[in-house]
Amino acid sequence: MFPKKVLGSLLAQIDDSWQPLFAKFSSELADIQNTIASQRIAPSYENVLRVFGYPIEHYRAVIVGQDPYPTPGYATGLAFSVSPEIVKLPASLKNIFTEYVSDTSNSYPATGDLSGWAKSGVALLNSSLTLNLDDKTEHLKIGWQRITTGALDILASRGCVAILWGTQAQKIGSIFTQSQKVESVHPSPLSAYRGFFGSKPFSKCNQLLNSMGKPTIDWRLP
């Protein structure tokens, strides 16, 4: 059984197909909720579990991030995505868009909102789902990784393709087989020129999906 306070808040954000995962980690989730309830966090409380709002079977790919953006108003509950009204995009997202244009030949997106990818079947999953705006490393060790690793296990078992940028994502995504993952350095300005640009993650993901007989991802963004 879930504690009532958990049932009525965080868990209201998830699709029923994820219930077994969160039932397994109900005590951890209750502890997390107690920790974050009185804090200034990113993303906003109602978006913490946004990525789990789609059914498991909706997802055919996953992009693994680390933790939400620390700038207030940026994080949306989807890894690497920002709110549509954000004008100054994070440097990593700008690099992602540069590679996106090069890889797909699509136009540069009008905003940093990646919810279109989520709608198309891409789980934008951070390994830590919240960030304390007053202590930016605290939430890396409050229990989220056990839950998100469990989610990746489920997605891997269903044959999803993982796009893993950087060593941290590659470590947490090690459950995926070589035929299920696309790996490169992180798109941050510190590493993007050491192998992210030219890595073609979007077309490679679709090639792997196609080889498995699965529908490819429509990567187009407005």
Q: Any chance you could write out the topology, listing elements then pairs?
A:
Elements: H1 4-7, H2 19-24, H3 26-36, E1 41-42, E2 61-65, H4 91-104, H5 115-119, E3 122-126, E4 131-132, H6 144-157, E5 161-165, H7 167-172, E6 181-184, H8 201-211
Keywords:
222 residues, alpha/beta, Uracil-DNA Glycosylase, subunit E, 4-stranded parallel beta sheet, two-stranded antiparallel sheet
Description:
The protein has a single domain (4-211), classed as Uracil-DNA Glycosylase, subunit E, CATH 3.40.470.10. Residues 1-7 have low confidence and may be disordered. With 222 residues, the protein is an alpha/beta fold. It is 32% helix and 10% strand. The strands form 2 sheets. The protein has a 4-stranded parallel beta sheet, with helices on both faces. The protein has a two-stranded antiparallel sheet with strand order 1-4. It contains 8 helices and 6 strands; from the N terminus they run αααββααββαβαβα. Strand 5 (161-165), helix 7 and strand 6 form a beta-alpha-beta unit.
How many domains comprise the coordinates? 1
Helix fraction? 25-40%
Q: What does the overall shape look like?
A: globular
Strand content: 5-15%
Strand order of the largest sheet: 3-2-5-6
Order of helices and strands: HHHEEHHEEHEHEH
CATH topology: Uracil-DNA Glycosylase, subunit E
Given as residue ranges, the uncertain stretches (5+ residues, pLDDT < 50) are 1-7
* Number of helical elements: 8
Largest sheet: 4 strands, parallel
Number of strands: 6
User: In terms of structural class, how would the helical and strand content be classed?
Assistant: alpha/beta
CATH architecture: 3-Layer(aba) Sandwich
